[in-house]
Design a protein that fits this description.
The structure is a single chain. By secondary structure, this protein is α+β, with helices and mostly antiparallel strands. Among the domains are: about 50 residues, no CATH class; about 80 residues, no CATH class. Helix content is about 20%, strand content about 40%. The chain has nine helices and 18 strands. The protein has a four-stranded antiparallel β-sheet, with no helix packed on it. A four-stranded antiparallel β-sheet has the order 7-8-9-10. It holds the Pfam family F-box.
Length: about 325
């Protein structure tokens, strides 16, 4: 026999407008949100829908700043909660007996990528950890086979390490798939791309891209380039690439299989340096700087890709002249 009180609650829930319901659920943390799947079939379907990232408004509740390597940085909590949304020390990882040393490499849509090595491991056995700092769930990713460790004490390999560069990027778009991918790029002498490896959480295995010297990559000539910054957008890795021979910047999209998919010309041809690529409000954003000399950055420009297919870039608010003032304040007075 149904309880009248239960029927009253179900009736009240059923009367909630979809917009109001989505607004309420979007403010809940992951663990309480999962418990609300038991309220009704409608709620269960709404919460479990992997496209909910598009349905719910994406409010910024916090961000990490200043973190790189073994320094995870500071978490700036914008939610106003007495307890931070996430543990900025990642103690759920660092206190685990399975983990001995981790290095922050990057993040993508709520997931964080760490490089991982046990103290007893050999030089070439660096693996990875992908975690959700909100739910404190994490998985390990094995080594791809060639992954140098910057702090290696092997003096014989120090020259080779400094001449090679390894970048590993995380691709995760919950609006497209619940699975993640890793793209690993190995460059020689900081310029020439030598190998591309990809990892899929579906197969749980690494794959070496066989077409690294094929037509898709040959369009860049001798591969004389420097990969500076990158981010995941539209399910692909978007990299800022600088061609040192022509002094040109381009944005190159690489899919999860390590295949170049799209090449976009950078709209600012004034020789500025692209130092940031990211996404906001469903659009790709880039920042470029003009350097007055080898030390000081004198101008900052922010660009947004309003039309992805047409490659329509728009400059936001002109050029920012704030950086010289920052440098001036940091310099000692005469």
């Amino acid at each position: 026999m149904d309880c009248p009180k239960t029927k009253g609650i179900e009736a009240a829930v059923a009367c909630l407008p979809d917009d109001a319901l989505e607004g309420i659920l979007s403010r809940l943390r992951a663990k309480p949100l999962l418990r609300f799947k038991c309220v009704s079939k409608a709620w269960c379907g709404l919460i479990a829908d992997r496209l909910r990232c598009r349905k719910f408004p994406q409010n910024l509740v916090g961000f990490f700043i200043g973190g790189r390597g073994e320094n995870f940085g500071d978490f700036i909590d914008l939610s106003g909660r007495p307890v931070p949304l996430v543990d900025p020390s990642f103690s759920f990882l660092t206190n685990s007996q399975e983990i001995e040393k981790i290095v922050l490499l990057g993040s993508c849509n709520g997931l964080v990528l760490f490089g991982h090595r046990r103290v007893s491991d050999n030089y070439d056995t660096l693996g990875y950890i992908v975690c959700n700092p909100t739910t404190e769930q994490w998985v390990t990713v094995p080594s791809s086979g060639w992954t140098p460790w910057e702090d290696s004490e092997d003096e014989e390999n120090q020259d080779d390490v400094q001449a090679e560069r390894l970048d590993t990027y995380l691709i995760f778009d919950p609006a497209v798939s619940p699975h993640f991918q890793l793209v690993q790029l190995l460059s020689l002498d900081l310029y020439d791309l030598e190998e591309v490896h990809t990892f899929s959480s579906v197969t749980g295995a690494w794959r070496q891209h066989e077409g690294i010297h094929g037509q898709a990559w040959k369009q860049w000539g001798s591969m004389a380039m420097a990969i500076s910054v990158a981010c995941a957008f539209n399910g692909m890795l978007h990299m800022s690439i600088h061609f040192h021979d022509s002094n040109l910047n381009m944005i190159v999209a690489v899919d999860g299989e390590g295949e170049p998919f799209k090449t976009m010309h950078w709209p600012d041809d004034s020789g500025r340096v692209v130092f940031f690529v990211g996404q906001s409000q469903g659009h790709l954003h880039c920042m470029s700087v003009h350097t007055g000399d080898l030390v000081q950055m004198t101008q900052l420009s922010i660009w947004v890709l309003e039309d992805y297919d047409a490659e329509k870039w728009v400059l936001i608010e002109g050029q920012c002249e704030l950086l010289p003032a920052v440098w001036k304040n940091e310099m000692p007075l005469p």
